[in-house]
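Invent a record, attention on tokens:
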Amino acid sequence: MRAIVSLLLLIIFGAGRTTAGITVPARQNPTERVVQKPLPVFLKTQAWIQLAKAHHVGEVDDPVRTLAQWPANDLQLVDHDINTIHLVINAAALDKPGWNDAGGRGIALRDLPALLDLPLDTFDREGLNIEPHDIVRPNSRPMAAIAKVMVQIAMLQTDLALAAFDDSTLQTARLPSRATIRVADADRTRAADLTLFWDAAREAMDIAEPTPWGGPLAHDWYVSTTEYMLGRRDYSAGLAHAEHARLTLPGNARLAVFLGGRRVIQKKPAIQLAFQQGEITAIGSRPDLLTKAEFQYRSAMLLDPDRPVVSLRLGRTLQLKGRNAEALPFLARAETGVGLPEWQYCAALFSGLAYQALDREGDARAAFQRASTMFPDAQTPRLALAQMTLRTSGQEDALVHLRSMAATLGAKRGNDPWWVYDIAVAPAGAERIDTMRTAVREALR
């Protein structure tokens, strides 16, 4: 009977009225704040996010060691979920129907405060819900909060991947069982495949990148990590990373040079042999790789015409493609304009090879002599001079150069810049990583 009376009072007086000491609940307003709900399906992803928030950037701490123990299936799951979050945000920005459910695991835009452990009112403004397309505007308060969590996620993944690059760093790590081939000179070794860690890190940084808060951090992150991978000759995760970096930051000349450098590295005989034997896949043939490298270097030259190192790289690529006359002006510009002696040496060396292919023996000899003068202990120009002399003057004269070269063979290979030309385009990878980490730590305070 009391229930019937209460119902009548509700109908007569309306919701939210107080009558005879009885408070009738108000009808729920659709613009009221969303109450955080449990997300049992996403417990693993929520645990991953908590690890990211507890992680100290730049350290191999408990969150890093914990994540290193996760099986590949769990890593794939959280990788899928971060991709779904990106899809949800993109769909909301486009005001697409169904923006609130993407990817098959039921993540809705309104789930993000609970999923990312954000304040309950993150998507509210003065008690009123914000429309989906307003929530995901790059300069909105909600997206700034989301971007902060994304950068934390990316740094957890990054610090683990960089630490795991050296097998001894995480001795108890339960890294993915898939292995990749690392090729250094003629040596091929197997190593853990860190692709899952980098995939999640890139996805997180791409979510943060459009925001004013996350944009500079994402830029520094892409440049520093791409340079680091190139410097460490990481040809597996590194190539996908460099390609994605170029798509994300198409106006960055440095990234274009890095990607061009990777393409030239892939044409090396040792890597081509591993490709032909089926040990590594999907790298492409030597002519195709050189064409792609040329495209990247020409793009870099358009983006930053005043970088002589781009002339060096482009000239070398053209010389490798047999377009020697076209290569020479770029190499000449590099030899006179590049500040580093190592790069001037390489420009002279490559000019010698181009002149030699054009049967300009005198110019070739002069170029090799310039290179040898710059680095007297370097074997490469001496060997080139010996080969030329053998053809033109005979065996005895060639032996003079060979004996001179033999006297330096006991020296470290580092005395010849040619041995590190492939990675010389990325000379400051470790330093740039440190600078990037410092910037992230400051931003997260």
About this structure: The longest strand covers residues 179-184.
